[in-house]
Amino acid sequence: MKKGKKLYEGKAKILFASAEKNLVIQHFKDDATAFNNQKKANIEGKGILNNRISEHILSSLKEVGIENHLIKRLNMREQLIDMVDIIPIEFVVRNIATGSLTKRLGIEDGTVLKKPLIEFCYKNDELGDPLVSREHIYAFEWASVLEIDLISEQCLRINDFLQGMFKGVGVKLVDFKLEFGKRKSDGKIILADEISPDTCRLWDADTDKKLDKDRFRKDLGNVINAYQEIARRLGILHEQSNNIRPIKFSKPKAVKIKKNK
Questions:
Q1: Model pTM?
Q2: CATH code for position 11
């Protein structure tokens, strides 16, 4: 499908116009970012793997009744998706305490939560995607009470499904980020963005080895190897994946983080 003009470029993806009304082409880049874009790198092949993994997961969710923006995968790096107006909230679903949650509350890393925890973050890189409450969301009219109730219910359904999917291949779903938007064609709220090792924390069930973007955040190395391992376990390694050269590190490379003045 022929791409039209560039509509938007984010940290990991680019959106292009398509020939179809209310449909756009989503291109997955190899760029990796962390700490609100303060740490950056280019990791060859990451976009190919995320495209394939996200397609598999979103297609599987559609089969169990979770509507999302995916129409079809077009090629190694691109998908045709519904155009949506994104709700400016990131919905973070946590099953195991790690990352910012442990730092904020002093919870021991790796603590298994008695039930899933949903947190709301305002989507704004300049502000560091701050944690917000339902009351903030309602006060500033980012979403209504009914919309947040609906999305929260969807988050828990998605969590149940993904936990089962990953448990079946020996992976713990620690936490993950979701985004939702209103479909341009009918205004219905649907799941959007992507679900991949960029947006999920995934640990090996036996060793707790990290198989996600934390390998980049924490300078653990072997980022592509980890993403390939997730694709392999899900049985969806891209047909062209042999062209992706695994990145091998003799020792993790530190990346300088720019400090805000």
A1: 0.89
A2: 3.30.200.20
- The residue type found at 214 is D
Check residue 37 and give its pLDDT: 67
Query: In the prediction, which pLDDT does 1 show?
Result: 75
Identity of residue 49: L
State residue 40's pLDDT score: 87
- Helical pair 46-63 and 223-233, crossing angle rounded to 10 deg: 30
Task: Please give, one letter per residue, the 3-state secondary structure of the chain.
Answer: CCCCCEEEECCCEEEEECCCCCEEEEEECCEEEECCCCEEEECCCHHHHHHHHHHHHHHHHHHCCCCECEEEECCCCEEEEECEEECCEEEEEEEECCCHHHHHHCCCCCCEEEEEEEEEEECCHHHCCCEECHHHHHHCCCCCHHHHHHHHHHHHHHHHHHHHHHHCCCEEEEEEEEEEEEECCCCCEEEECCCCCCCEEEEECCCCCECCCHHHHCCCCCHHHHHHHHHHHCCCCCCCHHHCCCCCCCCCCCCCCCCCC
Which residue ranges in the chain fall short of pLDDT 70?
A: 36-37, 238-261
CATH of the domain at 108: 3.30.470.20
What integer pLDDT is reported at residue 100 of this predicted model?
A: 94
Quote the domain boundaries for residue 233: 6-84+223-243
In this structure, the answer to whether residues 89 and 193 fall within a common structural domain is yes
Instruction: Quote the pLDDT of residue 39.
Output: 82
CA dist., res. 103 & res. 1, Å (int):
46
Q: What is the largest CA-CA distance in the chain?
A: 52
User: Angle at Cα 197 formed by Cα 195 and Cα 198, nearest 5°?
Assistant: 80
